[in-house]
Amino acid sequence: MKLTLKIWRQKNGQTKGAFQTYSLDNVSGDMSFLEMLDVLNEDLINNNEEPVVFDHDCREGICGACSLQINGEPHGPDALITTCQLHMRSFNDGDTITIEPFRAAAFPVIKDLMVDRSAFERIQQAGGYISVNTSGNTIDANTIPVDKASADAAFDAATCIGCGACVAACKNASAMLFTSAKVSQFSLLPQGKVEATQRVLNMVEQMDKEGFGNCTNTGACEAECPKGISLEFIARMNREYLKASIKG
Description:
Ubiquitin-like (UB roll), alpha+beta, 2 domains, Fumarate Reductase Iron-sulfur Protein, Chain B, domain 2
């Protein structure tokens, strides 16, 4: 295939960016989207031009690093996949593909297509964990019975990889789906009940501090999530937050 790529280039977060157009020939439909960008960068380097910076790590749909806005959609046109799992057979010969970083004030651009998503890490650090003192008294947490429905729902929430597609898809740049998944995976399990009140209060507070917008129930986050995280988790977090606010 021959493709025209319109790629966002930006030196850093303090300078203005702009789209630049590149032509790429001999693109195989079996290439992944990131492999296609690798080929482009090889051509740029061979021509003494600066390669395009983009984020990636595992390239197996697990880490969430490969977060790109492709033709206006987070992770591109296919559903329930990350950018690294998108293959070029999803496009046609002669297509023009627009590639840009996720757009959100809480995800500042580092360079080109790479953004700083450390806001998600700070939300997680605010309460997305279970504290257990095992010093001298190691306990097997799996001895606590968990009903299958709760275990399955907790697992569904835990599949969130923190890629940020929910934020990029939302007109308000809301992180409610991400935060609710991280809250819910613990609120559904007995091990998470001990710190449940402070967890949801702290994580929602940190989410607001980071500058994310609020949820207005458009459903774009669920539609674009590569792991299919359900809007039901936002409803669960809202209930948890209300209960915690009354207790506090």
